[in-house]
Design a protein that fits this description.
heterodimer; A: 9 helices; 78% helix; B: alpha/beta; D-Maltodextrin-Binding Protein, domain 2; 2 domains; five-stranded mixed beta sheet; 15 strands; 42% helix; globular
């Protein structure tokens, strides 16, 4: 039984429009905050300073547990308890989603960053240092430009994964694209139209995102023949 | 190399056989599959040992006993249960299901077995006195229930303050943390949750404008045979006092 009753999409269109905006908002914030967290902890991971060991713990914790669990954990346990301790109002589901998604993507970005830097031959840094550059100078002018090229494809992957995984926040009643489909399907008993609509919306977003990444990849490609 | 390939293929085949072996159990026609959503105390609740207890659970066992039905009673979750019955994967569903015209198009209902009403759960300090006072406020409901319908009818299908959860307990949690202003759910369920939240901190508002509703057991549309048996069983236990006994066990104190 394929129920293609598209009128239900019109009936619930406000939810889908709101869902589109919320999914974009979640992805943009989580990518931005995740980049900051990821770059910081990525650098901590390559440092030999023992004070930066917690960075490894952070990465292991957030890569080693499901995002779904992290969302539930932050929304129903961590954030309300923190708010209570400081006498504040418990932040709403949107904030919980930002926190969980940013911390999760931060952990993956940290690993992409570390991998990118370590993929650059050690000799490059040594050569730059022997020319009289300081460590930060050598990092900035010699290692990072080469590393960045290596990082772009996995970063693009991570952003696309994040965009799709943001759908998990439906469980804490955040009105994203999946929530719109789920509410429409449950209320109307029409299943095909809402889920296919949501799927198409995600496809459009991921296509735009991957186009942006491949543009950047081309831009930074140096070894063209 | 060839040997290893053989072993891999053999084990995949063995797994497939095991999986299909599991799914073909349904061929036994004498067993009636009953589904529920065991997250709606006091109607149904999943105990730590995996057993489903509650008013509906005891009622369906009593009906099955009265009609000599072999019952396989399982928790499926709300949506999977509704879907399963509609597609005939599950024979019947009992989960505080309100009889509505929309649902009647999809399922056949037994005679009503419970009269219910949607009520509003708010903190004691809340100024809310009726459904209309909730306008502009954040309201939590369980998705695809009559609680959701009541709010949708009052404020529109896509009202931004309406937050739908897959389970009631998540909505109750968010009410506890003041992320919601109210939760609209069945009276018996709210009475159960208010006990856990603390009766000194929360109150229940009954709005006369919200109509009464009735619960029924659903079967796949056209499954006359099972429907007749269930109705007959329900009648029997109502006449011999079993229904009252179960009812009093769960609701008398309220």
């Amino acid at each position: 039984m394929m129920d293609w009753d598209w009128s239900v999409i019109v009936e619930y269109k406000d939810l889908f429009i709101r869902g589109l905006l919320v999914t974009i908002e979640l992805t943009v914030v989580a990518v931005a905050v995740g980049m900051v967290i990821g770059i910081t902890s990525g650098f901590m991971r390559i440092s030999r300073n023992k004070w930066f060991i917690p960075a490894k713990l952070y990465v292991d914790l957030f890569r080693g547990t499901p995002l779904f669990l992290q969302i539930l954990f932050f929304h129903f346990a961590v954030l309300p308890t923190l708010a209570e301790t400081f006498g504040l109002e418990a932040p709403d589901a949107m904030i919980s989603s930002f926190v969980a998604l940013s911390l999760n993507s931060g952990a993956y970005i940290a690993e992409i960053f570390r991998g990118g830097i370590q993929s650059v031959d050690q000799g490059q840094l040594e050569a730059a240092r022997s020319l009289g550059m300081t460590y930060p100078q050598a990092m900035w002018h010699v290692v990072l430009p080469q590393a960045f090229k290596q990082m772009l494809p996995p970063l693009g992957n991570e952003f696309i994964t994040l965009l799709k995984d943001s759908s998990l926040v439906t469980v804490i009643a955040v009105n994203d694209i999946t929530y719109a489909a789920f509410v429409t399907a449950k209320n109307t008993f029409v299943r095909w139209a809402p889920y296919v609509t949501a799927g198409l919306m995600y496809l459009v977003l991921t296509t735009i995102l991957s186009q942006m990444v491949s543009y950047l990849e081309k831009r930074f490609q140096t070894n063209r023949y | 190399m060839k040997k290893r390939l053989c072993i891999i293929i053999l084990s995949i085949v063995a797994m497939l056989v095991a999986v299909t072996g599991c799914s073909s159990q349904k061929a036994d026609n004498s067993i009636v599959n009953a589904g529920t959503n065991a997250e709606f105390p006091p109607f149904e609740k999943l105990e730590g040992n995996g057993e489903i207890t509650g008013f509906d659970a005891e009622l369906i066992q009593a009906i099955a006993k009265a009609e000599n039905l072999q019952l396989d009673f399982q928790h499926y979750g709300w949506d999977s249960m509704l879907n399963g019955v509609a597609r005939g994967r599950i024979d019947m569903g009992i989960a505080a299901i309100t009889i509505t015209d929309e649902r009647k198009r999809m399922y056949d209902f037994t005679e009503p077995y419970f009269e219910a009403k949607q009520v509003i759960l708010v903190p004691k300090t809340s100024p809310v006195q009726s459904l209309n006072d909730l306008k502009g406020k954040k309201i939590g409901v369980q998705s695809a229930t009559t609680g959701e319908k009541v709010v949708q009818e009052a404020f529109g299908k896509t009202y931004p303050g309406l937050q739908r959860y897959d389970v009631v307990s998540s909505a109750i949690d968010d009410l506890k943390w003041n992320r919601l202003d109210a939760v609209v759910v069945d009276k018996a369920v709210n009475l159960e949750y208010i006990k856990r939240l603390g009766e000194e901190k929360y109150k229940i508002i009954e709005d006369p404008a919200i109509p009464e509703e009735y619960y029924g057991i659903i079967v796949k549309k056209g499954n006359r045979e099972l429907l007749d048996k269930l109705n007959a069983g329900l009648k029997k236990i109502q006449e011999n006092g079993t229904y009252d006994k179960i009812y009093n066990k769960y609701f008398w104190e309220n």
